[in-house]
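Lab meeting minutes (informal)
Scribe: AK
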Amino acid sequence: MLREFERTPVVTYALIAVNFLVFLLSLAMGLPRVFLAYGAVPAMIVFEHEYYRLITSMFLHADLLHILFNMWALFIFGRDIESTVGSGRFTLVYFLSGIAGGIAYVFYMLTYAAAFDPRAAFVPAIGASGAVFGVMGSFAVLFPRRPVAFFLYFLPIVAPAFAAIAIMGLIQTLLALALPFGSIAYTAHVGGLVVGMLMGLWFRALIRRRYYVLFYY
């Protein structure tokens, strides 16, 4: 395992709490209304310059299962990342990955809208998945040999973190190409994952350059 020293992952816990709080508030206000006002609607972001949607959309979730899966993954992977690189850098990973995922979604949907169906420009994306995939990407780089359990469709598999998360990334990429107009923003997952892995490489370089000690676990 790789770590500078143990820290309490306060940002991880705070993000989980804020996401659940926003989910409850969204239920009270009405989910469709909130999604249209604060979701990542490609046309509104690009043509109306409502860039705040790239951030607000990260805290919106469609239902209980959606938020539970995202927050479970953030809890599992986020704590080790934050404890290793610090709260500031972890926060950077989370938000930059989420924003990158949103930008990837916007670019893809506007391209699809121009080529095939104009309605695609007005489909909002919501969820913390881009940010969470970014955290997973950093985890894969910093803890490449850590065993990770995941489901390949309905088949449970345990594999080293880098291999497991790389497989998930490949699947997300194929699904993004096959289902551009589906109910899941696969392009956001891929965009977040790529940025998270790049930041993981940066963290490894910092760790090797300074006074950290590198272990494989």
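Next up, CB showed the second protein from the same session:
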Amino acid sequence: MDGYTLTFAPLLPWGLFAAMTAATAAVLGLGLRKRSSGIGFRTLAAAALLLAIARPTVTAEQRTELADVVLVVADASPSQQLGDRAAATSSAVQAIQDELADDGGLEVRAVTVAGGGPGTNLFAAVRSAVADVPPDGVAGVVLVTDGQVHDVPEDASALGFDAPVHAVLTGAPGERDRRLVVDGAPRYGIVGEAVKFRVTLLDEAAVGQAEPVRITVPGGHVAERVLQVGTPTEFELPLERAGVVAVALEVAAIPDELTPDNNRVVIHVNAVRDRLRVMLVSGEPSMGLRHWRNLLQADPAVDLVHFTILRPPTKQDATPVQELSLIPFPARELFDANLDDFHLVIFDRYHLRGILPPQYLSNIAEYVVRGGALLDIAGPSYAGRFSLVNTPLREILPTLPAGEVIERPFVPELSEAGQNHPVTAGLTAGAADWGPWYRMVRGMPVKGESLMWGADGWPLLQLSRVGEGRVAQLLSDQSWVWTRPGPGGGPRAELLRRVVHWLMKEPDLEEHLLKATVSDRRIDVLYRSVDTPLREITAVAPSGASTTVPLGPAAAGTAIASFEANEAGLWTLQGGNLSATALVGAADALELTEMRADPGPLEAFVGATGGGVFWLVDHGGPPPFRPVMAGQTAAGDNWLGLRRHGRHTVTGLAQSPLLPWPLLLALAVGALFLAWHREAQ
């Protein structure tokens, strides 16, 4: 394609040339007014001379037309996999490419946007696909989708180009789909509190009807609740222990709905402890007490209350009362009224000194039975007449003293149970370098499990469950020696951290655990038990079909399995008395909220760009395309417009005078001669 332009390059400056032209025009005008003889020839001569001075030049441009870009975006999100939408999308994209393939003025680009993110984000793909195209190089965008797009810009200018955006819709108007929508479910909650969330059952064809919803709560317990279709219903979920708590809700499918995938939802709440409130009750000062205080106070999430007796009440002090800066310790509030506010009570080398009355110790025993936690660090006094075993705590302590204190070096070692128990498993790395302890109390186990042995094979670490609570007892006050610099250390901090977390009922430290994690369509299973090995588990698919999955041995006390899920939705895993859930595929709640084909999310934006919305079912395929110019309508009832910008690049340039100056000079001389001849007559 070539283009021509006319330019002038006068021999005189433009100002002087303009003055000359004006003067010439004035003289010729005066002659014309007086009807002078030969004025016509004089005018021709003047025009020829002025053109010769102006030097008109014709510039010829050799141009190459630039193609405008048409972007075709195929929506391959999960909602587009329903029914024949995927096939319709593929056919529509191919038809558009075939129609525009022979148009040399267009460059067709096609991109496919799959799911996997939070919602369907087509416009992010649009911006990326035309990032290398200038704003005036886009002819239009065609979205082949079901209309469920979640990143629609608020303003058309946000796209960065001025071209129509068209939506070609798959599916059909009036589709029916029943779905559960969760609103306000928090990701985190505080242990001991309840989180609230709202669930709405949506079904436009059954608004107001009552429908039962099945609820699966932690532990595999199933309940049922009736929901009114279209009315939000509030639920409360108590968080009893730290870790991820999952609740599944499911409503029965109906025969004519699009998909049952969004008939179920799973709410995951990560329960965390706001503050770990610990009461440390210590006896005689020791190095172990100092290390306990340092360990607990180093954690900003721990609120520590330290109850210690520096002087028994029977000891007299001559200091005047008005000079004392001490205040009475609120023992009654701590051991009676506010005991349940603590998550953990620690006794460190404590023995009977006539300070805590038996009622307070009885309160602690009842506190543990109700679900509290107790850690006892036993010192030499545990073997004597002032032992805690001679108090109401006897009923919950996992050992009874044998009346002997062993005072000689020994190296702690894991028992057979301790090698499999999550509290101590893995601590054996570097066990050959563990240093010795030098004292322990000989105790006979009466409850729970012995995870570590001390001197002569006597229990060193004993864990026990009492009622709803837990008790741990370390029958030595020598763990602090592992913190001394130099050889002979040991994993004291990790050991005590695990013991405390087990007392706090952390799920990952449970002796019996069934856990499932999901990666794409693969479900990985971890089973742990210290005493009940399993060879297989049962996997129940969302449809109710059961599959037996064999387990393979892994680390001590654990077994693993992995399998591909052939259904999307909530899977239930069962092994022995344990159960776990796994949500496969349909984890994108934003995508599942609405899966019906609907022009609503795109309609306003498409209209603002000058584009149109079309149903494939109404036209039997995508409507034909028409070229349109800027300012023209870009969509009709049965056609789509693509804006042509007429862009080009100049590949060559040639200049030539419009009229050669000798010709103009000859014309001027001839005209003057004819004017003279006319006057002579």
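CB comment: The chain has 13 helices and 36 strands.
No objections, moving on.
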